[in-house]
Amino acid sequence: QVELAESGGGMVQAGGSLKLSCAASGGTVSRFAMGWFRQGPGKEREFVAGILWSDGETRYSDAVKGRFTISRDAAKNMVHLQMNDLKPEDTGVYSCSVDPRGDRNGLNYLTMWDYHSDYWGQGTQVAVSS
């Protein structure tokens, strides 16, 4: 059973930066595609960024491309999301999730609107003020 735990959320002014982390345990993370999602106030959950653990291939939503960077730390079984130039519309609860298919199909599935997984962290709050 894979367990995920996010950390690093907080409050920041527009233009600032935050770094989120997702610690994975209980599974062979090297076989996973891992992703970050967010849900803003009154909005549906949306894909933010994803990474293929095996080779580091990444995906980003258009809304964060060029501002956010996803990376993995193999030694610590962690995935990070470096968020720069934050905007008020980035406000929301950020959660990490995994797809057990550690290939490009799994990575692409993270980006789909109907993505489903049994593996989610509890989420961490990000608030960006204008």
Describe the protein:
By secondary structure, this protein is mainly beta. Helix content is 5%, strand content 46%. The protein contains 1 helix and 10 strands. The strands form 2 sheets. The protein has a 6-stranded mixed β-sheet. Strands 1-3-8-7 form a 4-stranded antiparallel β-sheet, with no helix packed on it. It starts with a strand and ends with a strand. The model has no long low-confidence stretch (mean pLDDT 94).
What would the average pLDDT be, to the nearest integer? 94
Judged by helices, strands and strand pairing, the structural class is mainly beta
Order of helices and strands: EEEEEEEEEHE
Query: Which radius of gyration do the C-alpha atoms yield?
Result: 13 Å
Indicate the overall shape.
Answer: globular
Low-confidence stretches: none
Query: Major sheet: size, sense and barrel closure?
Result: 6 strands, mixed
Helix content: under 10%
Order of the strands making up the biggest sheet:
2-10-9-4-5-6
β-sheet strand percentage? over 45%
Total DSSP helices: 1
Based on DSSP secondary structure assignment, what is the total number of beta strands?
10
> How widely separated are the two ends?
40 Å
Helix and strand topology:
Blueprint: E1 3-7, E2 10-13, E3 18-25, E4 33-39, E5 46-52, E6 58-60, E7 68-73, E8 78-83, E9 92-99, H1 104-110, E10 124-129
Parallel strand pairs: 2-10
Antiparallel strand pairs: 1-3, 3-8, 4-5, 4-9, 5-6, 7-8, 9-10
